[in-house]
Amino acid sequence: FPSHDNVVAAKQYLGKGNQKLVDAAQEIGLIKQQNFGASLDEFLDLSKVVEKSKGQKLLDFPRKLQTVSEETAKLNVFGTWIKKFASKAGKTVDDALKDPDILENAAKKAEEAIFSPYRINQAERGLTKDLIPFYSFTRQVIPFTIKTLFQKKL
């Protein structure tokens, strides 16, 4: 079952609850950023220049679900680090959300912790996806795990 923090992050991402964290994450570029292809798809969809079939909309669903899932997880990690950095700096969360250094550091922690297939360039993904199952995850988890082990001094 999802943890309480995950449920709160999902509600915030979907526009329910306190939006300050979502707004800060969006302003710093952590979530809800569209690439050119996604922006073009949205423009064509809204302009009705090209009608998407129900089948195409169904095929787009996994990508959209991946994005929402990934961004909700990033928002959860981002919020956790905002709270930690605010406490360490002796600030309230609201004050921390106005501090560019805290925002940047929390965003870096969230990007580092949530593995995304989109952080690996398309050429590398294309070459390896048929050869090595779960390559993008493995490629990101190994350096993260090694770094975490050295930081925790296990």
Radius of gyration: 18 Å
Bin the strand percentage: under 5%
H/E element sequence: HHHHHHHH
Secondary-structure content class: mainly alpha
- Globally, the shape reads globular
What is the typical, i.e. mean, pLDDT? 78
Helix count equals 8
Task: Characterize the largest beta sheet: strand count, sense, and whether it forms a barrel.
Answer: none
The oligomeric status of these chains comes to: single chain
Concise structural overview:
The protein has 154 residues and is an all-alpha fold. 71% of the residues lie in helices and 0% in strands.
Describe this structure in words.
This protein has helices at 4-13, 20-27, 36-47, 54-89, 93-96, 100-113, 122-128, 135-152. By secondary structure, it is mostly helical. It has 8 helices and no strands. The two termini are 29 Å apart. The longest helix is centred in the middle third of the chain and has 36 residues, at 54-89.
Labels describing this entry:
single chain, 154 residues, 8 helices
Helices and strands in order:
Layout: H1 4-13, H2 20-27, H3 36-47, H4 54-89, H5 93-96, H6 100-113, H7 122-128, H8 135-152
Helix pairs in contact: 1-4, 4-6
